Amino acid sequence: MPATLQEILLAPDTKPSVQSDCYTLIQQEVSELSGISGTAVKVAYKTVTTFAAGHVQVMIESLLPRMVEQLEPFWTDFGTAGGADFGDYLSKRGGEVADALLVVTDERAESSERPTLIRAYRSVRGGAAKHIQAALPRVGDLVLKYTG
Q1: 54-105 pLDDT, tens digit each
Q2: Is the model's pLDDT at 1 over the cut of 50?
């Protein structure tokens, strides 16, 4: 039986590399943003990294299992469909995938006790789906790096 996405990406010998690649992906995505919403994300990101050094890495480590869990049904369907490009598959289901991933960050924001970070998250939440959808090809590439 083929391994699940969770078994692959969260395996003890693989998870640290996946986390590092996720951090790099976030940095790339944030640096490439432009316009008003891009500026808002950059300000929020700067706020988080200024007020809580290392917070992004901690959040990646904390949120990765739930994010992978949310991606699992898409991965299963992708495998069943016999696709070759997971990023393209995710992009074609952009809204649905973004909503699934935002469930995780919304839950985390609701349980946070850090007002500055909550404000930063809320300031960008409205446009988050659009930014996630733009990143899905890279997310797919990251997944395929470990599964392909």
Answers
A1: 989 999 999 999 999 999 999 999 999 887 899 999 999 999 999 999 999 9
A2: no
Residue closest to 4 by CA, chosen among 64, 62, 69, 66 = 69
**CA separation for the pair 103, 108 (Å, rounded):** 9
Give me 44's structure tokens.
């929020």
Pairwise CA distance, residues 39 & 43, whole Å = 6
Which of 12, 125, 10 lies closest to 67 in space, CA to CA?
10
In a domain, residue 127? The reply is yes
Residue 6 within a domain = no
Question: pTM here?
Answer: 0.87
Domain extent, residue 116, equals 13-147
Q: Domain tally for the chain?
A: 1
Percent of the chain with pLDDT over 90: 64
pLDDT in tens, 11-52: 999 999 999 999 999 999 999 988 888 888 898 888 888 887
In a domain, 45, yes or no: yes
The answer to whether residue 66 is domain-embedded is yes
